[in-house]
UniProtKB/TrEMBL annotation:
Span of domain HTH arsR-type: 31-111
InterPro entries assigned to the protein according to its UniProt record, in alphabetical order: ArsR-like_HTH, HTH_ArsR_DNA-bd_dom, HVO_1552_C, Metal_resp_trans_reg, WH-like_DNA-bd_sf, WH_DNA-bd_sf
GO terms of molecular function: DNA binding
Pfam family, one: HVO_1552_C
Transmembrane regions: 123-144, 176-193
Species for this entry: Halomarina ordinaria
Protein name: ArsR/SmtB family transcription factor
Presence of the UniProt keyword Transmembrane helix in the record: yes
Coiled-coil positions: none
Record's keyword terms, sorted: DNA-binding, Membrane, Transcription, Transcription regulation, Transmembrane, Transmembrane helix
Amino acid sequence: MSGLLPTSTDASSEQEGELRTLWLDSDDAGELLSSLSSDTARAVLTALHERPATASEVADSVDTSLQNARHHLTNLREAGLVRVADTRYSQKGREMNVYAPSEDPLVVFVGRKERKTSFLDSLRGLVAAVGVLGVLSLFVQWLATPAGVASDSLPRMADSVGSGGAATAPLSLPPGALFFAGGLLVVALLLAWQRWNRLDRPTV
């Protein structure tokens, strides 16, 4: 009968939910910091970000007792940092929870509300800029690829050009990748200039 029960899991450590924000002086932040007050608790959360695991697997991973691992998993769940992502069964048919990080990534803020708003606006702008760069890079790569020639055959074509005895030059990066890298550099320079502008602004 136990052979019919699932002994593996499809749970993932990916966090695909909405970004959560938390003020340091809020009640929820106090619970969160309390749940992460020990080295073992932080090790448990780090291990789950690497891969989902059962309580016994967590205990083995961070070198602690099963009872201690369950204690920290309970605290982390109550703080909203960990969730039960799946259920699987041991070889003996015993049901076990599979733990994973919360689906929603979390940012804790210290300071004024204006800084929080500014940070979130910058983060959203950065994500949007990288997304646009990715789409444009694919378009540039499509324009640069000769019609009817598969992209994976380009290295072999380049190798055959240099096969006449002369040394073959190393294959350069695809145009789309170069465009994407250049765009990231421009975005980084703009962010650095914006930050320098803020720091250079005299305080009143």
